[in-house]
Amino acid sequence: MIDLHTHTTASDGTDSPAALINKALSAGITTLAITDHDSTSGWSEAVTALRPSLSLVLGAEISTLTLDGISVHMLGLLFDGEDKHMQNMLAESRDTRIPRMRKMIDLLAADGINISIEDVMAATPVGATLGRPHLADALVRNKVVATRDEAFLELLHNDSKYYVTHAAPTPEDAIRQINQAGGVAVIAHPFASRRGEVISAATFTNLVSAGLHGIEVNHRDHSQAEREQLAQIADQLGLVQTGSSDYHGNGKLNELGENLTDPEQWARLESLASARRVVTK
Ligand code: AMP
Ligand code: ZN
Ligand code: FE
Ligand code: FE
User: Fold this and answer.
1) Is 2-95+167-271 CATH 2.40.170.20?
2) What residues of the chain score a pLDDT lower than 50?
3) Which in 40, 54, 57, 196 has the greatest CB count within 10 A?
4) Rounded to whole angstroms, how far apart are CA atoms 173 and 160?
5) pTM score
């Protein structure tokens, strides 16, 4: 069972990397990628907690913005975690999330909503990539809303008047950077339209030119029709198809392993990285 997209407390998941490893073992996962938002800081704890029968894949989910302002999440897998250019790109993205959070808080507070930067920091694990889910958790603690989900539905969704973007690389820049660091690039949930505007089918050609390797086809935010359309695009462009849970612990309904990647697809994806970087014990 291969699950190539999961989050920990290094970003907006609620399980520590060690806890995620234990849950993956219990769930029967055999290959697990840890893909925190704009960060690889959960990696060393995960490697330490690793046990036989599970293979671990270093990854990150990079937030990008097209020149038209469409939000695209790019999974980088199997890159060299020590690569300086890659780590600089991730660090820049994390840095811009702090002023972005302050702007969102100012907009909420100006409308009389009880929230401060201190509240959000108190709801954010040390060292985690700061994101809207932490703001959501702070709003729950302040009893403005009852759940993370309600916070997103009512206040924090992409079309909300309180939503602010942060500076981010373009999808092409992120793909090139992942390639330069020896990894493989898989576009995450590209047709998840519930989250906001999505890219057109024609855009995939440009991403392939930049070095895209795969498409996350099987993901809970895609309908059956969207999965079929994406599978067709992947076939036409010679891209690998993946499936994954996008697990966030208690932060979302997604269950570990609820969508999986076929072993043949994974074998092909792994062979496209510049080196064999899957970690086992
Ligand atoms: P950000 O990167 O700060 O823009 O936050 C995006 C994160 O919010 C993504 O990881 C999503 O998984 C998460 N998210 C989006 N919608 C929801 C929701 N309804 N409930 C919980 N988390 C969500
Ligand atoms: Zn997330
Ligand atoms: Fe995502
Ligand atoms: Fe994700």
Assistant:
1) no
2) none
3) 57
4) 27
5) 0.97
